[in-house]
Amino acid sequence: MNRDDMNRDVTNADDTNHDDEKDGVTTRTIRVENVTRVEGEGGLDIRLRSGALDDVKLNIFESPRFFEAMLRGRPLEETPDITARICGICPVAYQMSSVHALERALGVDPGEEIRRLRRLLYCAEWIESHALHVHLLHAPDFLGYPGSLEMSRDLPEEVTRGLQIRKAGNALLDLIGGRAVHPINVAVGGFYKPPRRESLGRLVPDLEAGLRLAIDATRWVAGFDFPDFEQAYDTVCLVHPDEYPMCEGRIEASDGLSITSDEFESVFVERQVEHSTAMQSIRSDTGATYLLGPLARINGCRDRLMPVARRLADEVGLQTPCHNPYQMIVARSLEIVHAYEESLQIIAGYREPQPSRVAYRPHAAAGSAVTEAPRGMLYHRYRIDEGGAICEANIIPPTSQNQSQIERDLRSFLPGILEMDDDELAKRCESLVRCYDPCISCSTHFLQVRIDRGA
């Protein structure tokens, strides 16, 4: 589900309690009927019958945001700036998928220097997004803290380190994108104003320091006590012959699937479920759920990590393919190291692109693209008319694709912990959901867990 950093307008609804009795079985249900326009809100319904798991539903009940409808009739040049507003944490992913799709429709080749600069911008986003999740949202789960504020009292150095790691990514994002939140420098064909080489050079000391901090943080995270839980995942990610997946490549799955972005909608199918305003996705060829994100990328492309990150993966003992969702935090930390490494490499060889934007002629066409957002594959498809206006848009974010897999994880995980009391069971479920860093997790405790145990 997408996140927005705009002010929230919350409509409160009263909880309603129902005690129903049928055939001697009493069921109590507590529902929050409607909470509108709340950033990143979700719920979890767990229903038990006779002590056994009966049903699990991950509810995402934010109101629809209609970005695809908003784009229709707008000039294609406005698309990157509009789609950036879909998410305040990963706006670059939405911009990159949009410009790649539109450039493929128009037959635009922006050239190698623009391509490398886009990867550098993407690296900045991975750093700031991953660092936020690892240190402030997910680490407290493994260390027994209710949140990052409580953790910071006992582990101030670790929390400060995480903030420093994120700060360097934000600075890079600000320089290339024009600002750190909802960047405004990305354009179809390139950039409005590319950074000067000397400006990027001034960031190198902080990036080198950030790399060292990220290495230390990965060693710390790899020492967490991970629950013994594995799933038979079908992992899916972009695969490029020479690069770690980010902006380009074929879509490949662990079962041998290999397709282009133009074939995406023939294999990955969205479906509406009654309990969520977010669409869910499955594979049409197998009917199965699938896993996106850092663990999928590490499993499929470990050999394309930058050298330091690759050696660090060996040092911390991450075994691939890994099917333990709790170790996504290790994969995410390794990707921070990779992003720092690649950033320094790109800056070392940076040449200001000339021109900074490649010219094109609008015409009726259609195009699609997939890039790797921090949370996994993000798909965009557009159809434009002869004047360059958007006629149709389809945007499929990674969290909606992962939602069915999250529910499947919960169905497998819950039978082993049903003897726990409601509070502890809820905490365990929240921790599992947070492994995915879903875009509804704006705060550490975002789920309203409803447990129906029957009599």
Question: Going across the major beta sheet, what is the strand order?
Answer: 4-3-15
> How helix-rich are the residues, as a percent range?
40-55%
Main beta sheet: strand number and arrangement? 3 strands, mixed
Tell how many strands the DSSP assignment holds.
15
Assess the beta-strand content as a share of residues.
15-25%
Give, in order, the helices and strands. EEEEHHHHHHEEHHEEEHEEHHHEEEHHE
Structural shape: globular
Measure the end-to-end span.
35 Å
CATH-wise, what's the superfamily?
A: Cytochrome-c3 Hydrogenase, chain B
Return the average pLDDT rounded to an integer. Answer: 86
Radius of gyration: 22 Å
Find the structural class using helix and strand composition: alpha+beta
Uncertain runs: 1-20, 24-39, 441-447
CATH architecture title: Orthogonal Bundle
Number of helices: 14
The top-level CATH class is: Mainly Alpha
Domain tally: 1
CATH topology: Cytochrome-c3 Hydrogenase, chain B
Descriptors for this entry?
single chain; 455 residues; Cytochrome-c3 Hydrogenase, chain B; 3-stranded antiparallel β-sheet; disordered N terminus
Description:
With 455 residues, the protein is α+β, with helices and mostly antiparallel strands. The chain has a single domain, classed as Cytochrome-c3 Hydrogenase, chain B, CATH 1.10.645. The chain contains 14 helices and 15 strands. The protein has helices at 67-71, 79-84, 91-106, 112-143, 148-154, 156-177, 197-201, 204-222, 264-267, 294-301, 307-315, 328-348, 398-413, 422-434; strands at residues 15-22, 25-32, 42-49, 52-60, 186-187, 190-191, 236-239, 250-253, 258-259, 268-271, 280-283, 365-373, 376-384, 390-396, 447-452. A three-stranded mixed β-sheet has the order 4-3-15. The longest helix has 32 residues, at 112-143. Residues 1-20, 24-39 and 441-447 have low confidence and may be disordered.
